[in-house]
Q: What sequence folds into this?
C-alpha cells in the first residue's frame, strides 16, 4: 500500500533547541495532519492542513503543507521536556477513500533538560 | 472536545479465546476505525466503518471481525486469539466531510497481551 516517509526516525535534543521533522510521499495529498503520541496514550491531533502552501501554528508548533502537495513539515521551537513523545504525520492521498488516512511511522523525540 | 473511549487500557487473554474490544465516541461521528500499532510498523488499519451496520476491510483484517450496531459504538472481535495478535489497539473516529478529510480522533488505546 501507499506509504509516507517520515524523517528523522528519532531525535535527541537539548532543552531550548528547535526541532524540524518532515514527511514525504510519492503522490499528491489533499490533507496533512500532525499528531503527537505520549507513552501509553493514543495519538492527539496537533495541526491539520488542507491547502498547498498553508502554514499553521499551534503555540510553539508550526506546520506547513508543501507547495508540491507531496510533503509536509513540522517545526517545534524552544523545545521543553514535555515535548517528548512520538510525532506522526498523516494524510489523505488525492483520490483516496474518504476518511481514510495514511500514517508515517513516526519521529521519536527525546529532550534532555 | 471529541471523546473516544476504549473499554480497557490493558487486557490479558489466552490463546484461542474470543476477545472483544469496545470503542465508543460521543461526537456523532459517521466514521470509525480500528488500528493496531506495533514497534517499527506504525499504525496499520484493521477495519473501518462509514455508517451503522457497514464495515470495510483495512490493510490487515485477517483474524479480526467488527460490529457496528449503533452509530457511537464500534467493536473489534478477535475470533480466536493468537500470540501474534499481542499489540496496542487504537480506535479512532471522524466526521464526514465532503471534498476533504476530517481528522481522526483517537482513544487512549488497549494494550492486549495474548498468552
A:
Amino acid at each position: 500500500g501507499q506509504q509516507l516517509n517520515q524523517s528523522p526516525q528519532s531525535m535527541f535534543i537539548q532543552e531550548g533547541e528547535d526541532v524540524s521533522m518532515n514527511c514525504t510521499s510519492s503522490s499528491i495529498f489533499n490533507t496533512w495532519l500532525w499528531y503527537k503520541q505520549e507513552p501509553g496514550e493514543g495519538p492527539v491531533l496537533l495541526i491539520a492542513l488542507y491547502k498547498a502552501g498553508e502554514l499553521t501554528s499551534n503555540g510553539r508548533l508550526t506546520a506547513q503543507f508543501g507547495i508540491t502537495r507531496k510533503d509536509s513539515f513540522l517545526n517545534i521551537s524552544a523545545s521543553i521536556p514535555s515535548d517528548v513523545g512520538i510525532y506522526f504525520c498523516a494524510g489523505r492521498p488525492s483520490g483516496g477513500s474518504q476518511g481514510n488516512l495514511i500514517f508515517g511511522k513516526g519521529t521519536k523525540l527525546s529532550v534532555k533538560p | 472536545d471529541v471523546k473516544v473511549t476504549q473499554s480497557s487500557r490493558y487486557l490479558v487473554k489466552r490463546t484461542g479465546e474470543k476477545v472483544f474490544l469496545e470503542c465508543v465516541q460521543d461526537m456523532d461521528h459517521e466514521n470509525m476505525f480500528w488500528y493496531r500499532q506495533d514497534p517499527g510498523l506504525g499504525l496499520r488499519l484493521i477495519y473501518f466503518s462509514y455508517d451503522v451496520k457497514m464495515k470495510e476491510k483495512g490493510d490487515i483484517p485477517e483474524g479480526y471481525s467488527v460490529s457496528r450496531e449503533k452509530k457511537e459504538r464500534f467493536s473489534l472481535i478477535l475470533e480466536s486469539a493468537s500470540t501474534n495478535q499481542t499489540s496496542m489497539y487504537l480506535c479512532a473516529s471522524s466526521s464526514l466531510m465532503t471534498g476533504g478529510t476530517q481528522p481522526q480522533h483517537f482513544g487512549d488505546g488497549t494494550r492486549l497481551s495474548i498468552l
Observations:
- The interface with chain B takes residues 1, 30-31, 33, 35, 40-45, 48, 50, 88, 90, 92, 98-101, 103-106 of chain A (CB under 8 Å).
- The longest strand of chain A covers residues 29-37.
- DSSP finds no helices and eleven strands in chain A.
